[in-house]
Amino acid sequence: MDRKVAIAGFRMAAAPDLETTRERLVFELSKGLLDDLGIDRDAVDNFVLCSNDFLDGRTISHVFLGPPAGGYMKDQTKVEMDGLNAFIYASMGIISGQYDVTMVLAMSLTGSQVSPYLYFDYSLDPTYDRQLKLLNELSAAALEARSYLAANGYPEELLDAVAVQNLKNAAANPGQARRIEGVSREKVKGSPYYYEPLRELHCYPPTDGGCAMLLVSERKAEELTDKPVWLLGMGRSTDIYFIGDRDLSTSLSAAQAAQRAYAMAGIKDPAAELGFAEISSPFAHQEPLLAESMGLLEKGKAAAAYEAGDTAVDGGMPLNPSGGPLGGNPLCAAGLIRVAEAARQLRGEAGENQVKKADKALVHGQDGLCAQQSAVVILGT
Amino acid sequence: MEEIKDTFLHPVVPLDFQNNYRVGAYLQRYLDGFREKKILGAKCSQCGRVVVPPRKYCGACNLVMEEFVELPQEGTLENFTVGHVTLEKGQLNRADAPYVIGMVRLEGASNSLLAKLDVAPADVKTGMKVKAVWKDQVEGEYTDLDCFQPA
Ligand SMILES: [Zn+2]
Question: Residues of A with CB below 8 A from B24's CB?
Fold first, then answer.
């Protein structure tokens, strides 16, 4: 990259019910972040907002969210996919040289004020899948889970192991929405099935939340932070919509997005070079599935890796040391929160969940059924 | 400022609008086939892929698929899930009884159809042979193809 992009700071919020309004959440995240950095909105030249009109119940939702974000009379655009796409789009404005300071802000109140499942209902093909009424976010995820387990000969217990690891990490992360004390495999196994093999605790909890992040050019990074986190590479890929056309046991979109990001970051051996990963895996099976697809875990060896503790906070390849989406998954904000959690690790501020090798990390975001679309960024210190 | 207890407003969103969709010529052929209890797919002349239901474009080749082919009514259950919940209009509820949906690969097809399965949850297995079950009265609607059951 000719021009470098740094994360100068971020603010996050997540809870089952933040007892807030959309505008107040946006204001508190944005103003809070500006206050943290000791600047005001005059210092920001571009605002990229990430929300969803259906989830917001009003079209062109950034019309209402721009002013509380501080984006009034500024360049202000909206990304209506996952927040990691907003992050990439915002970064491009800095790489291009057009902007030096960009606020990227993503949010939704899918815990208390609108059902998260509507997002995917509205995304279904109206002339086919909506007519058949068989497909929804959860049934699609369950089909993907079984396909993945069957193709690799993994037992259903792998899902319990992934969920326990994530929920333990989430319980130790004060920023997470779902924090269960004393979580165990028995507790996960005791939670009711949604669609087999997925149980309630294998699935993300409906979550209110948001994330504001300030992205800056190299010149501004020197002024604004003594702990810059740098963007080293990024990539995206979109698979076909129809799940009946796809091999659900793997993720082509994640594999391609990661390869593109690795090429840009000069990474040859991701499993060896990356210290950890924050992965948008709203369902337990997706964490190993995506990690294998992106070359972070050896294909077919994921069950052994979880059993051996390789993916735990103190393992060789920590996955979602923050607790990941099983600890909280506000739509739109999900991928941006993964970036912020990775940045917290890279800055050495992850407290109890701090990983040892925090120099380079992968962040994955997704949109669509079964990660139809994937976005990957590589971050480093 | 003194803390103000706010009111939680319920939907007053004017989302009762109706979007109408033309199904297009390809899904129309599929539905017309249902009137004769036939399952049609579209074949790509370049890569030979057969997709069901038929679609106009082959995504891989970026070409119009111009040939319709009739598929057999039997296939293999490639994947399935037992549903214990229902999800309607965003609301998650426990189902009255577990039910099975799955992905059926018809013989000769390159992709899979998502379908209801008429089989007990305890008996469903990946790889089992299944066949289409039609409603007695077919009317050229998606619901004509009622479900699949073990062949
Ligand atoms: Zn083709």
Answer: 127
pTM: 0.96
Nearest CA among B129, B125, B126 for reference residue B107:
B129
Chain B residues with CB under 8 Å of A146 CB are 79-81, 126
Chain B contacts in chain A segment 220-249 (CB below 8 A)? 240, 242-245, 248
> Is the Cβ–Cβ distance between A122 and A114 less than 8 Å?
no
Rounded to the nearest 10 degrees, the angle between the axes of helix A62-69 and helix A22-37 is 30
The CA dihedral of A346, A347, A349, A355, to the nearest 10 degrees, is 30
Query: Residue B103 carries which side chain, given as an amino acid letter?
Result: M
- How far A112 CA lies from chain B's nearest CA (Å)? 10
Residue type, B94: R
Which of the 8 DSSP states describes residue B131? E
d(CA B131, CA B73): 6
Q: What is the pLDDT of residues A4-56, one digit of tens each?
A: 999 999 999 999 999 999 999 999 999 999 999 999 999 999 999 999 998 98
Query: C-alpha distances in angstroms, B83 versus A182, B101, B113?
Result: 28, 7, 17
